[in-house]
């Protein structure tokens, strides 16, 4: 029997998914803006961050309200705690996308010449895939797939490290473009952070579905 | 406006008229109870209120003349229209049954020329022949002198004479009843013993020469004592007739009667309100405390009150444990099934058996079977005079107990069922056994309900007459079931009963018209007794209810 | 909700997995019948000593029947029958040698509706002793004091021990019933929805008391209030249709129940 207040959980879930979609879109657009040197797209991503922040506040509010009034237990309770944490993670993803977009705008405006993005595109694809997969796992309540997300994180970390080394080398070669490469290093770092948040999301989904702890190697 | 009117119509709920019907039912019931009680109380108390005596002067040639004079004194009891002649008719209580042959006289209003309320008319209560209404003439004293009615001392002296007579009467009664009675009982016992000895001797079993002689000697002593006392009683009785009052009836006859025949007198036409109230209270008390006279139509009804009370108490004492124990087994221990249901239906049906059937059962079972056996076993020396083998208060009480036991069983069962399961479970969960639970928790909690059953049983038992007539009630019992004679409780004795008294007065009395007021007074008293017994039980019940009030069970 | 759909196959029996390995009350393949109707199906689990074990489940799931089987309160009902066994502290409650009277002294019970006797507070507490014939004044006095202190009622009633127990408030009455149960010094206290008729403050006091009492007694509580089960119990058993669906530590039951029916029940999606 579905009780009237259980729809509140569904609403919260859909808000979370909406937030995920928005964060995903922000990441996608920011990288696109960087790649295509699309200043409008970058501006759009910068503006969209407020929507994501507003959704986080909304989800937090819904979660605390449900805790206060509905005394959730078991999976309901886990969903609430996951929602609070996941919305925070997604908000951070949004923030990182926002940072990427700002740096992309910077690059578009200030660096006229051609420059190498190294493996940023690949990283972005990976991070986006992790994010997408986490969200799919959330929708389908699948913990097995979420395990794959955890595995991908190391790959992104490695790519970030490679990028870092590559950009340092480029800075040495072209010291007058240091600023540009600093921006690119930070973009790479942001993508690495986005992958981390996606990993967190995956861990939270594993907790939601199995109540098992997978964070910090299951301490 | 339109909508408001239509609203108003629907404001009257459907079916409310049934409330009127049900309240009308109640009103009818209340009305009947009030009417019946009012009638009984009014008529019952009216008996004791002194009424003015009217002296009527009749037409010279009236056939209502009772003597030489055309006068008639009496209390007008009723004025009514004769249905046949259509003339107004007075029913007068003229008293003087010995002179007129009846207590009442019906005269036609047409024959009355005049009426007056003579101051000096006396209404005197007598031991026999009911009241006398007369004008005093003279009083012949023991010392030979004679007081005439005109003498100022006459009334005080007459009153004193009656008081003396009454005291002497009590003395005689005491002498005959107690002292002589005691001797008689001993003589009876000795005679029985003597008979026994003689029988055994005749059969050649043992020789009791010495014992027999002792008995005979003792009998002789007792005979001598008896003779002395009997002589004394005889002397006292003779003294009752020493002083003679002479009086004139309204109709002219002059009669004389010894003061010993009188119980008391009053001058109704001289009495003020206070006198009347005093008279009223005195007579109510006499009614309650004295023994009946004159085939129960005069005097008090104390033996009947006492008999009813003792019988009801005995019945309660018998029916309570019996009914309660039976109900406990039925409700708590018996395995609920078709058999128990059958028993329960049978018990309920018992309540519908005519009471006379119980009387017959009581006669057959208690009186003849149980009583007869007791007589065989313990009182064989008194046979063929039955001791327990005849109706008595014990058998009457037990018969009524059998009759009312269904009421108690049903009420007790209801009360036991009403004890909440929680109370029983709490007790059992504390490690109490089933019997401990019943004893300590269930019975106290159901006591109010059980007492309600007892109240109902008492009300039914106290008012029952038919079965009693054949198991021990008599119209006049020589002695009370409880008195100062060993063994104090005489359960085998026959007794008087208010219900039977009413029947006896109303339908068996030689002068039922004269007994009519007594019927009302006795009925009133019977109702009062039932109310008092019920009130007592209700008070106990309320006390218990407060004590064992169960709030949150 | 798909999780609430009744399973077609019989749920797997869950062997008792409580917070410790003790087996103070052992329920062994226990089945119970009211006439032809089977109320309990082959229950098998153990209840540990000095812990609070809660029975939850929808009405008619058999949790009260099981509770009442432990002290054989069901004996009062005609036409009952059982299979299997219940052992308390090693002895079977159905052992013909076990007298039901002494069994009930070993296993106290507190009921849904507080049911003090219409007697004084003092007499209520010592009722169990009175019926077993213990009447020594000094002993009784001491037990009354200890029991009332144990039931956290002493301070409230010490000046009116001889007043009627019915003058107490609902919560006080229920604590008096607990005092009455512990006066017999039982090994186990069974509680059948002890707070269902009480206000939240009185409920809170009883819950505190249960928490204190488990230091000395093994407590089994039937409750419809899942928050209460979560607050006071160490282990929780979920029953449905006379079957034990899940038995585990209370934390597990309320955080991550293994069975979808348990989950549906405790999250309110049942039925």
List the helices and strands and how they pair.
The complex is a heterotrimer of chains A (219), B (553) and C (271).
Chain A: H1 6-36, H2 39-70, H3 74-110, H4 120-140, H5 143-173, H6 178-210
Helix pairs in contact in A: 1-2, 1-3, 1-4, 2-3, 3-6, 4-5, 4-6, 5-6
Chain B: H1 2-11, H2 17-46, E1 54-58, E2 71-81, E3 88-93, H3 97-100, E4 104-108, E5 112-116, E6 122-126, E7 132-140, E8 146-148, H4 154-202, H5 209-239, E9 244-248, E10 254-258, E11 262-266, H6 273-289, E12 292-293, E13 298-299, H7 302-333, H8 338-350, H9 355-378, H10 393-418, H11 421-429, H12 434-462, H13 498-508, H14 512-547
Antiparallel strand pairs in B: 1-2, 1-5, 2-3, 3-4, 6-7, 6-11, 7-8, 7-9, 9-10, 12-13
Helix pairs in contact in B: 2-14, 4-5, 7-10, 7-12, 8-10, 9-10, 10-12, 11-12, 12-14, 13-14
Chain C: E1 25-34, E2 37-47, E3 52-56, H1 63-70, E4 80-88, E5 91-92, H2 100-106, E6 107-110, H3 121-125, H4 127-131, H5 137-150, H6 154-157, H7 170-183, E7 188-192, H8 200-213, E8 218-222, H9 226-232, E9 235-240, E10 243-249, H10 250-255, H11 260-266
Parallel strand pairs in C: 3-8, 3-9, 6-7, 7-8
Antiparallel strand pairs in C: 1-2, 1-4, 4-5, 9-10
Helix pairs in contact in C: 5-7, 7-8
């Amino acid at each position: 029997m579905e009780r009237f207040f259980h729809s509140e959980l569904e609403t919260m879930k859909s808000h979370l998914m909406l937030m995920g979609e928005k964060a995903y879109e922000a990441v996608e657009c920011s990288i696109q803006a960087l790649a295509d040197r699309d200043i409008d797209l970058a501006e759009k991503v910068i503006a969209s961050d407020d929507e994501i922040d507003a959704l986080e506040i909304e989800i937090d509010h819904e979660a605390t309200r449900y805790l206060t009034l509905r005394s959730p237990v078991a999976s309901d309770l886990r969903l609430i705690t996951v929602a609070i944490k996941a919305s925070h993670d997604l908000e951070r993803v949004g923030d990182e996308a926002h940072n990427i977009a700002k740096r992309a705008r910077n690059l578009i405006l200030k660096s006229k010449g051609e420059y190498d993005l190294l493996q940023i595109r690949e990283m972005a694809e990976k991070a986006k895939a992790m994010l997408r997969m986490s969200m799919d796992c959330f929708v389908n309540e699948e913990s097995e797939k979420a395990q794959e997300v955890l595995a991908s994180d190391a790959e992104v970390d490695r790519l970030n490290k490679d990028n870092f080394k590559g950009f340092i080398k480029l800075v040495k070669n072209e010291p007058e473009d240091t600023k540009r490469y600093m921006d690119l290093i930070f973009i790479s770092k942001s993508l690495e952070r986005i992958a981390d948040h996606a990993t967190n999301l995956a861990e939270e989904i594993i907790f939601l579905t199995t109540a098992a702890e997978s964070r910090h190697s299951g301490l | 406006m339109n909508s408001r009117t239509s609203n108003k119509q629907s404001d009257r709920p459907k079916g409310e008229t049934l409330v009127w019907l049900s309240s009308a039912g109640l009103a009818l019931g209340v009305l009947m109870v009030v009417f019946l009680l009012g009638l009984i109380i009014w008529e019952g108390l009216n008996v004791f209120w002194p009424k003015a005596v009217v002296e009527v002067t009749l037409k010279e040639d009236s056939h209502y003349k009772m003597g030489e004079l055309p006068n008639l004194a009496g209390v007008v009891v009723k004025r009514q229209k004769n249905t046949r002649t259509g003339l107004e008719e007075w029913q007068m209580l003229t008293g003087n049954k010995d002179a007129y042959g009846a207590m009442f006289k019906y005269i036609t209003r047409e024959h009355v020329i005049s009426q007056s309320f003579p101051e000096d008319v006396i209404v005197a209560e007598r031991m026999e022949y009911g009241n006398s209404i007369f004008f005093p003439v003279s009083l012949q004293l023991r010392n030979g002198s004679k007081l005439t009615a005109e003498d100022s001392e006459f009334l005080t002296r007459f009153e004193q004479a009656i008081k003396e007579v009454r005291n002497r009467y009590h003395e005689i009664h005491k002498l005959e009843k107690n002292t002589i009675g005691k001797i008689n009982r001993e003589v009876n016992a000795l005679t029985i013993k003597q008979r026994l000895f003689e029988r055994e001797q005749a059969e050649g079993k043992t020789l009791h020469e010495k014992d027999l002689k002792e008995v005979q000697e003792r009998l002789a002593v007792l005979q001598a004592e008896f003779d002395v006392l009997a002589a004394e009683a005889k002397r006292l009785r003779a003294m009752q007739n020493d002083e003679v009052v002479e009086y004139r009836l309204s109709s002219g006859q002059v009669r004389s009667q010894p003061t010993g025949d009188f119980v008391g007198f009053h001058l109704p036409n001289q009495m003020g309100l206070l006198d009347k109230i005093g008279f009223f209270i005195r007579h109510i008390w006499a009614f309650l405390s004295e023994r009946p006279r004159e085939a129960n139509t005069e005097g008090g009804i104390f033996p009947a009150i006492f008999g009813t009370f003792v019988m009801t108490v005995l019945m309660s004492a018998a029916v309570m444990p019996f009914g309660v124990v039976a109900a406990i087994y039925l409700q708590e221990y018996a395995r609920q099934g078709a058999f128990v249901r059958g028993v329960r239906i049978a018990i309920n049906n018992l309540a519908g058996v005519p009471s006379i059937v119980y009387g017959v059962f009581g006669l057959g079972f208690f009186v003849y079977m149980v009583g007869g056996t007791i007589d065989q076993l313990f009182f064989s020396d008194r046979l063929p005079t039955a001791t327990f083998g005849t109706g008595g208060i014990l058998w009457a009480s037990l018969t009524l107990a059998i009759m009312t036991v269904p009421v108690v069983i049903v009420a007790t069962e209801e009360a036991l069922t009403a004890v909440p399961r929680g109370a029983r479970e709490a007790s059992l969960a504390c490690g109490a056994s089933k019997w401990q639970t019943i004893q300590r928790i269930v019975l106290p909690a159901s006591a109010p309900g059980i007492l309600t059953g007892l109240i109902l049983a008492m009300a039914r038992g106290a008012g029952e007459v038919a079965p009693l007539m054949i198991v021990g009630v008599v119209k006049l019992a020589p002695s009370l079931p409880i008195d100062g004679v060993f063994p104090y409780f005489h359960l085998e004795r026959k007794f008087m009963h208010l219900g039977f008294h009413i029947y006896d007065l109303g339908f068996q009395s030689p002068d039922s018209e004269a007994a009519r007021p007594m019927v009302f007074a006795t009925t009133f008293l019977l109702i009062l007794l039932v109310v008092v017994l019920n009130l007592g039980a209700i008070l106990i019940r309320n006390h218990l209810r407060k004590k064992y009030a169960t709030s949150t069970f | 909700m798909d999780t609430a759909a009744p399973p077609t196959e019989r749920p797997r029996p869950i062997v008792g997995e409580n917070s410790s390995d003790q087996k103070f009350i052992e329920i062994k393949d226990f089945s119970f019948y009211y006439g032809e109707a089977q109320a309990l199906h082959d229950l098998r689990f153990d209840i540990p000593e000095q812990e609070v074990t809660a029975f939850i489940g929808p009405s008619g799931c058999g949790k009260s029947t099981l509770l009442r089987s432990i002290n054989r309160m069901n004996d009062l009902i005609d036409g009952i029958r059982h299979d299997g066994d219940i052992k308390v502290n090693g002895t079977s409650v159905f052992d013909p040698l076990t007298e039901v009277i002494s069994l009930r002294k070993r296993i106290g019970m507190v009921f849904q509706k507080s049911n003090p006797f219409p007697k004084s507070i003092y007499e209520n507490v010592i009722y169990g002793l009175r019926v077993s014939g213990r009447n020594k004044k000094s002993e009784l006095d001491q037990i009354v004091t200890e029991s009332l202190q144990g039931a956290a009622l002493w301070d409230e009633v010490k000046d009116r021990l001889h007043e009627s127990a019915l003058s107490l408030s609902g919560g006080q009455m229920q604590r008096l019933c607990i005092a009455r149960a512990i006066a017999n010094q039982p090994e186990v206290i069974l509680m059948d929805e002890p707070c269902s008729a009480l206000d939240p403050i009185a409920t809170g006091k009883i819950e505190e008391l249960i928490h204190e009492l488990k230091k000395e007694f093994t407590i089994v509580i039937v409750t419809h209030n899942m928050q209460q089960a979560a607050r006071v119990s160490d282990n929780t058993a979920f029953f449905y249709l006379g079957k034990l669906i899940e038995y585990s530590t209370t934390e597990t039951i309320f955080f991550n129940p293994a069975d979808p029916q348990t989950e549906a029940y405790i999250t309110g999606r049942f039925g």
